[in-house]
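Quick log. Single chain, no ligands specified.
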Amino acid sequence: MRPAAFATFFVVLALVAVQGQASAQRAAAPAVKAGATGESKTPWGDPDLQGTWSNQTLTPLERPAQFKDKPVLTEAEAAAYEKQLVAAGDVDNRTPGTVQDVNLAYNQVWWDRGNKIVADRRTSLIVDPPDGRIPSLTPAAQKRREEDRKASDNEKFAASWLDFDVYSRCIIRSALPRLSTGYNNNYEIVQSPGYVAIMQEQMHETRLIPLGNQPHLTSTVRQWLGDSRGHWEGNTLVVETTNFTDEARGSTFQYATKNMTLVERFTRTSDRTIDYQFTVSDPDTWTRPWTVKMPWNRIDGLIYEYACHEGNLGLEHMLSAARAADAKNK
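-> predicted structure:
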């Protein structure tokens, strides 16, 4: 068996074991509810975060200019803003005969971003800095951003699959941390003694997070979703992730380098809500660390397969179209 295949087999086996253990534990001794906040414990005593969750929200990452000096809306303002955002997404933006004809053929039927902003009516998901804006990019990060934009413009003339970002290649949706997008905002959390597993609907990755004082991987080992290590601070799961990679375009968060540090905090605040916060820091990208706060809300039902696989027909057709464009332009 090849090393890569063996590694894949080992990870899958570990995840099956985690899910099997957790299912067996729950069947043998259901989690015990405690308190009006919805707090519950696993049979082995850890706070229980298990279930299927969604981080969908209409609240933008950064505070819009129209709310520059208004971090929180009134109820009436929030209702009007939600109506405005839903209406803006419920349009067909196609221009027949153009490259974007199909890319923009989406209306509200397709979107799954919900129809509400966050419950506390904040005007941005960013809570630090106080202005609700991403801190300034360093000159090096600005250069990476421009290079990424140029590469995106050139995808239609790609010479090989390596010219596409990792999303187009169906490897990962985007780097950690994950933000709410137009659809596929669902997650499943499974726990067992010593581990927490978080399955992400899009692009069907699963993070297997060891708990305790285990050291991170050495700096020579880099992974698409980094190397995560977790521990409990009271009822909050704190996860620190390092060892990211920048080997392919789209494999970093907001133009960060592979040396970014991500600290996430998961706190069960009710039976149907997790308070999720993250802080990212990377001196080579931003002039200061910044923090996001957003809710994860329980969803009822299963997460179904997101069928996007590396090497699928979509990529083959994009490359053949690029070769046809090359021939036409000669």
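The longest strand covers residues 261-270.
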